[in-house]
UniProtKB/TrEMBL annotation:
SMART domains: HTH_LUXR (SM00421). Residues 809-874 form the HTH luxR-type domain. CDD domains: LuxR_C_like. It comes from Streptomyces tubercidicus. One of its GO terms (biological process) is regulation of DNA-templated transcription. The lineage of its organism: Bacteria, Bacillati, Actinomycetota, Actinomycetes, Kitasatosporales. This is Transcriptional regulator. It comes from the Bacteria. GO terms for molecular function: DNA binding.
């Protein structure tokens, strides 16, 4: 897993661009040329080179491909030879296929010669151009007359960035590392190439526990990275340079600032070229650079006095907006104005520093929050009583340190402010439980807090720790008790959402929803209202009420600022669950990639391992079994680093079972389901136990699942639980009629994937009984339900009786089990058998046995050859790198 010494570009395969290549080929087959447009660095030139390379091999061109991509100065002579050698359109000889790079820079006279040759049919033109730049008049005429078809090339999305990095590095890349690379480069292929090669060279991008990890830029970009970033901004006029300088210093700014209003035409030009991006946050439109890495390079190159002047001017323009209120859209303005003043050497008041630090915490910008909190403490301001240091700033400092994983330092800071406020106590308990893993100590502190103030918010702290201890019944009973108190009481607001969550996990989602409905949530404090909506959506999903879950999600999205990362994380996870239930697994995977990139996402509702496991499940459901199995490596690494949380840990294990089953390792999946069902039932978490038994039945052990279901007992009112239980029993009885009926009922709730699966299972039952007409009707129903899904595939265990399950195109062409996939992927990264055994917590002999079967199935004899099977295939995966 070391960097090779060859040229950087050659180490990056042309991937992720298959649809664009197909589009160009289609134009060529129809006798039309192609104009490939896009912003700098997205890979236009590489795409043109790959097109010219493929044309003769694939036989898609009716002509002769020219020698590579000629320089503009050589085009005149080349065109003269084409005119001499090639016939007019309709002649008998072959015409020439000519590639021209950066045709927007072509001299007018040469462009006219080229246009004449194209119109006469002597030349078929394949060209590239920068987006947003005027073309020579003659070339624009070809485009207008349909002789050149447009092919737009854009930057990679986050999934494309992940595939590109994995193709270059040869093994799985940590999700947060992919997110950092994507955030900095905007998915720009050239910047991604240079950034990755630099990180490999300086050793900051390195393999750890089977995953490539990178913590991000240290200081300003330098070397080839900085040079490339600045070169991408070459050719800007003075106004464009000023706008880029402004955005490089502040990141993103509202478009209604006076300075930006003056530069509005400039912003529009740069937006058309992809250099500036406009995006809506809340009620306002903000502008930012499309590739923040370019901004870092520009900021590093600004003269000190110029940078200080611009920062102060921007702070002055942002501050009036930020002074109105310290929440909503203006909270971000305040953070930016205060940060700009600190960077410019000014000293904002302690109150503004604290407010800015609080906003930075919401954005999970923990280093910035630490800097601002320390600056507030440095002002020397004391608490209201005048005797103690500013405990509000100390609280912010403790939370910022905890967010960076510096939990012992956070404990020291928070201890200094102990007893000053309920918020300090909450932060101490959270850091003890989630950060340091001292759950018993956290529980003791929470119990003491409740004894001191039984009607205060400490009830919520106590409930949180009890969830972590798997004491869900105690949490639910506490919720029942506080319901008898005033609905506005802090105890109720802090405790009731967690109690409803516990009720739902205990198997009675309807009771959880009923608890929530008894409260006038609109009069609650903002954070409590948010938790209420989160649990409302969760309980609605568990009860099978998709419409209600969507309504709660809509209220969540409307109420939360887009830069409040924890709220966005929860909303993303819930929305992804809706997508998966309704058959839109690829959309779920996209949301979960963003959620999984959040490092400090651990609380009672989300843990990082749980989010990653859901991502693996969504990938498996969309047919990407190999990537799903690779993601399990990261799931297990995250689980090892986290505090044990049985509620989430069993849900992680259940997602792993789903991935194993969809990858072909049904015995392994069944074992995992059985373990989860046993643990969850013993703890009283009947919702998870039922989900495990349901998956067990779907995988083929319906009889055993039905027996254990009877021992589990009944469930509260709720369509989803009842349908799962009936599905288990229908599978155990092999009752085709019941399975057909269940398919209709799953579909009526919006659960098209389960509807398709149940109908396909009915088809199998009817076929086995010789009732072929009924079987055909069930199969038609399954296909209809599947057609309502967008990217979710039928699992192999439920495939029609006359069909084998579809293969994962990235699986290397062999039917490996999930465990064999894991071993093969790790072996392909050149880990030793002993290292693989340590990663997977198995014996070396087990690894050897798995590798023996892998080699046999794939027909390879070494680890080096395994890399060929697990690298993305050029025609199946999709990415181009280059300019």
């Amino acid at each position: 897993m070391t960097a090779h010494a060859s040229d950087a570009a050659a180490r990056w395969p042309v991937l992720n661009r298959e649809s664009e290549l197909d589009e160009i080929e289609g134009l060529v087959v129809r006798g039309r040329g192609a104009l490939v447009t896009g912003p700098p660095g997205v890979g236009r030139t590489r795409l043109l080179q790959e097109t010219l390379r493929r044309l003769p091999r694939e036989g898609t061109a009716a002509g002769v491909v020219g020698p590579g991509i000629p320089a503009h100065r050589d085009l005149t002579g080349l065109l003269e030879r084409c005119v001499t050698a090639a016939p007019l359109r309709g002649g008998s000889g072959p015409y020439a296929v000519l590639g021209v790079d950066d045709i927007h820079q072509l001299a007018a006279t040469v462009a006219e010669q080229l246009a004449v040759a194209v119109r006469e049919g002597r030349v078929l033109l394949l060209a590239t151009a920068l987006a947003g730049i005027p073309l020579p008049t003659a070339v624009e005429g070809l485009r207008r007359d349909g002789l050149l078809g447009d092919v737009e090339v854009t930057a990679f999305d986050q999934a494309g960035t992940a595939r590109a990095l994995r193709a270059r590095l040869g093994s799985q890349v940590a999700t947060d590392t992919t997110a950092r690379c994507w955030d900095l480069t905007g998915g720009n292929a050239l910047l991604l190439t240079e950034l990755t090669e630099q990180a490999l060279a300086d050793g900051t991008l390195r393999p750890t526990q089977g995953l490539w990890r990178w913590e991000g830029l240290v200081g300003r970009p330098a070397g080839r990275v900085a040079e490339t970033a600045r070169r991408m901004l070459d050719g800007l006029d003075s106004d464009e340079q000023e706008l880029v300088a402004v955005l490089s210093l502040v990141g993103s700014v509202p478009d209604d600032l006076p300075r930006l209003a003056e530069l509005a035409p400039v912003a529009e030009r740069l937006n058309r070229r992809g250099i500036v991006v406009a995006e809506r946050t809340g009620r306002r439109l903000r502008l930012r650079l499309g590739q923040p890495l370019c901004g870092h390079a520009v900021a590093a190159g600004l003269p000190t006095l110029t940078a200080r002047r611009l920062r102060r001017q921007l702070a002055d323009e942002l501050e009036p907006t930020g002074a109105v209120q310290l929440s909503g859209d203006t909270g971000l303005d305040l953070l930016q104005s205060v940060s700009l003043r600190v960077d410019a050497g000014q000293h904002p008041p302690a109150g503004r520093l604290r407010a800015a630090a609080a906003t930075a915490l919401l954005r999970f910008e923990f280093e910035s929050a630490e800097r601002l909190a320390r600056a507030a403490l440095d002002t020397g301001e004391t608490a209201a009583d005048g005797r103690a240091p500013d405990f509000a700033a100390t609280l912010l400092l403790g939370r910022a340190l905890a967010g960076q994983g510096r939990c012992n330092e956070a404990a020291t800071a928070l201890a200094a402010a102990d007893g000053r406020s309920a918020e300090v106590t909450a932060a101490r308990i959270g850091n003890l439980a989630w950060g340091l893993g001292r759950v018993t100590e956290a529980a003791t502190l929470a119990d003491r807090s409740v004894q001191r103030a039984p009607h205060g918010p400490a009830r919520g702290l106590q409930a949180t720790v009890r969830l972590l201890q798997d004491r869900l019944a105690d949490v639910a009973e506490t919720g029942d008790a506080v319901l008898r108190e005033s609905h506005a009481a802090p105890a109720l607001q802090s405790c009731l959402p967690l109690a409803a969550f516990a009720r739902t996990e205990l198997g009675d989602a309807a009771a959880g929803l009923a608890m929530l409905e008894r409260c006038p949530v609109e009069s609650w404090q903002d954070e409590a209202r948010h938790a209420h909506r989160v649990v409302s959506a969760h309980a609605a999903l568990e009860s099978g009420d998709i419409a209600r879950a969507r309504g709660a999600l809509e209220r969540l999205r409307c109420a939360g600022a887009s830069w409040d990362i924890r709220r966005r994380l929860r909303a993303d996870v819930l929305q992804a669950r809706v997508y998966r239930v309704t058959g839109r697994a690829p959309e779920a995977a996209a949301l979960l990639r963003r959620a999984a990139a959040v490092q400090d996402g651990q609380d009672w509702f989300t843990t990082r391992a749980w989010v990653l496991a859901q991502l693996a499940g969504a990938l498996a459901e969309s047919g990407q079994s190999t990537e799903a199995v690779r993601t399990l490596i990261e799931v297990r690494a995250a689980a090892r680093q986290a505090v044990p949380y049985p509620v989430a840990d069993d849900k992680v294990a259940l997602e792993e079972a789903l991935v194993l089953g969809r990858s072909g390792d049904v015995p392994g999946a069944l074992r995992r389901c059985g373990e989860v069902a046993r643990r969850a039932a013993a703890a009283g978490r009947r919702t998870t136990a039922l989900a495990a038994l349901h998956l067990m039945a779907r995988l083929g052990s319906a009889g055993q699942a039905a027996e254990r279901l009877d021992a589990l007992g009944g469930f509260g009112a709720g369509a989803a639980a009842a349908l799962r239980a009936e599905h288990i029993r229908a599978l155990a009885r092999q009752d085709g009629e019941a399975l057909d009926d269940l398919a209709d009922r799953f579909a009526s709730l919006g659960g098209h994937p389960l509807a398709a699966e149940s109908a396909s299972q009915a088809h199998r039952v009817w076929q086995g009984a010789g009732r072929h007409r009924a079987g055909r009707a069930s199969l038609a129903g399954s296909r209809g339900y599947l057609a309502a899904c967008v990217g979710t595939l039928l699992p192999g265990w439920a495939a029609p009786a006359d069909r084998a399950p579809a293969a994962d195109p990235s699986a290397g062409g062999a039917a490996l089990t999930a465990r064999e996939h894991e071993v093969a992927v790790l072996a392909a990264t050149r880990l030793t058998n002993r290292e693989i055994a340590a990663r997977l917590t198995v014996s070396v002999r087990t690894v050897e046995n798995h590798l023996y079967r892998v080699y046999s199935k794939l027909g390879v004899t070494s680890r080096a050859l395994l890399g060929d099977h697990f690298a993305p295939q050029p025609l199946a995966a999709q990415t181009a790198h280059g300019r």
